[in-house]
Amino acid sequence: MRDRIRLGLVGLGRMGRFHAANLAGRIPQAELVRIVDADESIAHENADRLGGIEWSTSYDDLLDDPEIEAVIVASPTPLHAEMAEAAAAAGKHVFCEKPISLDLGRTYEVIEAVRSAGVKMQVGFHRRFDPDYRAAKQRIAAGEAGEVYIFRTSLRDMRSPGFDYIRGSGGFFADVTLHDFDTARWMIGEIEEVTAFGAVLSDPGFEEVGDIDNAIVNLRFATGALGVIDNSRVAGYGYECSSEIMGSRATLRIDNHRRISVQTLTPDRMCQDYVSDFVERFADAYRAEMEHFLTALREDRDPEVTGADAAAAFVLAQAADRSYREGRTISLKRKEQDGEIFYEEVG
Prior knowledge:
Elements: E1 5-10, H1 14-25, E2 30-36, H2 40-49, E3 54-56, H3 59-63, E4 70-73, H4 80-89, E5 93-96, H5 104-117, E6 121-123, H6 131-141, E7 148-156, H7 163-167, H8 172-187, E8 191-199, H9 205-208, E9 214-221, E10 226-232, E11 240-247, E12 251-254, E13 264-266, E14 269-271, H10 278-281, H11 283-298, H12 307-326, E15 330-337, E16 340-346
Parallel strand pairs: 1-2, 1-4, 2-3, 4-5, 5-6, 7-10
Antiparallel strand pairs: 7-11, 8-9, 8-15, 9-10, 11-12, 13-14, 15-16
Helix pairs in contact: 4-5, 5-12, 8-12
């Protein structure tokens, strides 16, 4: 490979624009050479903003470029699987935003296509690359927390993204809770039981599109540890992603959702600011996950976050949805294939 890895990016929505800005100016080992979006005005505007790089409305233009070594798939979710497969077939490595697909069968097909093509794929679970979460993970692995008893995490959006988005999001658990399931597996270990409770509390429009706006998910890990996830699309006060791991030796808390660590104290009141969204909170993590992907390509090793991780999180999301709709606990079993863990629901 060259000193810098040549990349193409497809999909210039919010995440695509953020990744493109990182790759074009903040990651020295990356050379973003082409961006693609179906909307010509969006593709042209972003190419100008990024310094005049090549742009197109055709994904084939990106795939047909022999100089491009890897593709960033940041397109709408229904296109992820098809575009990831096409990139692999063209011999290009793939970074794919989550989820790979809203169909588990298609997810497995993409994993197999990537494996058969002999290319590498990383999935966008950015929390694994956040400095705070990585530090906590390292402390758990080093035994500083001791035996883990309880894992708790909150993921709350300030406001809903809108019903047009929600209709195609795959449902609350696949869209919102997916990152929490991956974090739980990565930090604590494999999961054996999922029990989910959901509700429509802020707007009947959520029920009209077949979704919910708040949820609680209880977990039982294979180690016997317990987990609690709380999620909301409508927290109002700001964006929050916080976690706590309670162990026999220590409790670890991750709570970095502030722009500045300054408290304003006045009579009878204390004020503290909050970030407004996930991009602001995890800016460093999004850059770090791309740096990790490029390093893995250069060193010819598998990325830390694989397609199997994406499939496992999606199975857990499906189990949560089924638990919520059927009012019961869903048990899971695991199987190992090619050194990776895959999940299946039981019953």
